[in-house]
Amino acid sequence: MTSPPAASDTTRLHLITDLLAELRRRGVRYCHWKSTAGLEQALAGRTDLDLLVDRRQTVEFDIAIRELGFKPFVSHPSRRFPGVEDHVGHDATSGRLVHLHVYYQLILGEQYIKNHRLPLEAAFLDGARDLDGIPVPPPELELLVLGIRTLLKYRRADAVKDFARLGRRGGIPPDARAELASLREQVRDDALEEATARNLPSMTPTLVGDLLRIVERDRRDAIAISRLRRRVVRELRPYERFSRGEATWRYGRARLAHFGPVRGLLRGITRSELKRKVPQGGGLTIALVGPDGAGKSTVIEELSTWLAWRLNLRVVYMGSAQPSGRTRVLKAVARGGRLAARFLRSAGTRRTADVLIGIRYLSDARDRMDRAHRGRSLAAQGAVVLFDRFPLEGVMIGDRTMDGPRIRTLSSAASSPRLQSLARREEAWYASIIPPDHIIQLVVSPDVAVARKAHRSPDAVREKSRVLLGSDLSRIAPVTRVDGEQELDEVVEAVRAAIWTLL
What is the Cα–Cα distance from 334 to 342, expressed in whole angstroms? Predict the structure, then answer.
């Protein structure tokens, strides 16, 4: 099962339709300021909606999106710029997330630093025209800015690649070339030059036209494109946020921090996560719990697909089926000790086997403690952390806690000082695990659980379901109970709604 689709990949989402209507009702001045060629995908929630909003109407805009359920999110510091905000909404009909990339100022330029602020906001908004029910800028202004963005993003590495004719794509990406060509068909040369002279007087009026001619003649002319890039950087100096020296230093530092081995040392997060957002209210830990047969793994998979599109999400497995390397070794040793005890049938061998099993259980506890602490640390950094299972203090399966300490249940525990010592350490490690911020409990009756897990021991499955049904998990953390006997799509949507409320 995949993330729930809309009627088609290009069907406008209800949430976006409501957003456009609400902004129109409130008289908010805005436009979708870039990549109008991909507007259909943006309105379907497949890509970002890049909105330029009149900064004098920030309050009205904020009220409008809040009433529609949009929530503020924060980009990674390397992708955070003044006058730019991120808001995410949940389209309940399709299940998709809608990302609003909101600009109050036009900040653009090189990757990682966006060193230029162009004072074109009034021109964009005053000249906005309607396209598919949403305001977009005049094509000559969009072409002007796209040409500038394309040149500023053309780095020395791109020029080397093009000069040596390495690879097949070329330094200017195909989507940028296609968009430049599309806009050029809509704009006369004299209109483009007039718009450049009127709005950016420091720029040569023919600069973007020169770029278009170079790309048409030879899209990999590294010398000509590099020469044009140097000219645009020089002519845009009045609009720089930082001096060229500081901008170069910031860009180099960002590139170094994004380089694989260094990135791991400095941040410990992946490149894809650098592109994702965190809730403005901070990170969150959520545990998904339920008996065997409740569908936890499937729901977690669906939630990952849904949230990871734009949010910094981590899934942390808290069961014992995915042990660390250390625990796998100890598990094999304990299995050998148990076989030896069964074969030799001596009291001493049984006690030794129990100690080996106890050491293995202690390693399980260490795995869970480390994962729980890591999850909380990630949440403190802003991530949304989903725990798949969680130790539930006071929820007893027979004589032991569900996903909790087990050493004291061993037959030799009461008489073995060694096991007693191991048990105390195990219990201390479990006690150090801080409860999640919220628990989502999938509720399934014992009979349904057994029917779904026919290959498991019916008594064990039935007992776990019965115990969870009778337990008050709210004394551990706030709980949302979801009927796990519904159709899977309904379960996933109910969990989505619960999580969206928490974010």
Answer: 12
C-alpha 19/C-alpha 351 separation (Å) is 68
Please provide the DSSP assignment of 213-271 as one string.
Answer: HHHHH-TT-HHHHHHHHHHHHHHTGGGBSS-HHHHHHHHHHHHHHHSHHHHHHHT---H
The pLDDT profile of the chain, 503 residues, written as one tens digit per residue, is 333 333 356 689 999 999 999 999 999 999 999 988 889 999 998 999 999 999 999 999 999 999 999 999 988 777 788 899 999 999 999 889 999 999 999 999 887 788 999 999 999 999 999 998 999 999 999 999 999 999 999 988 888 888 888 877 777 888 898 999 999 999 999 999 999 999 999 999 999 999 999 998 888 899 999 999 999 999 999 999 888 888 888 877 777 766 656 555 555 455 565 667 888 888 999 999 998 888 898 999 999 989 888 888 999 999 888 888 898 888 888 787 778 766 766 666 778 888 888 888 899 999 999 999 999 998 988 889 999 999 998 888 877 888 889 888 888 778 888 889 998 999 999 999 999 999 999 999 999 988 988 778 888 888 888 989 888 999 999 999 999 999 999 999 999 999 999 98
Please give the single-letter amino acid code of residue 311.
L
Q: What is the bridge-based pairing of β-strands 313-317 and 49-53? A: unpaired
Q: What angle do CA 465, 471, 477 make, to 5 degrees?
A: 115
C-alpha neighbours within 13 Å on the C-beta side of residue 499: 33
Angle 75-76-82 from CA coordinates, rounded to 5°: 60
Q: How far is the C-alpha of 141 from the C-alpha of 129, rounded, in Å?
A: 12
Q: What is the 3-state secondary structure (H, E, C) of 203-221?
A: CCCCHHHHHHHHHHHCCCC
115 closest CA partner among 33, 252, 237: 237
**Across 419-494, where does the E strand assignment appear?**
438-443, 479-483
**The model's pTM:** 0.82
Strands 116-118 and 106-108, by their bridges, are antiparallel
DSSP 283: -
Cα angle vertex 382, ends 380, 388, to 5°?
80
Long-range contacts of 406-414 (CB under 8 A, 24+ apart): 406/361, 406/364, 407/358, 407/361, 407/362, 410/354, 410/357, 410/358, 411/350, 411/354, 412/350, 412/351, 412/354, 412/355, 413/354, 413/358
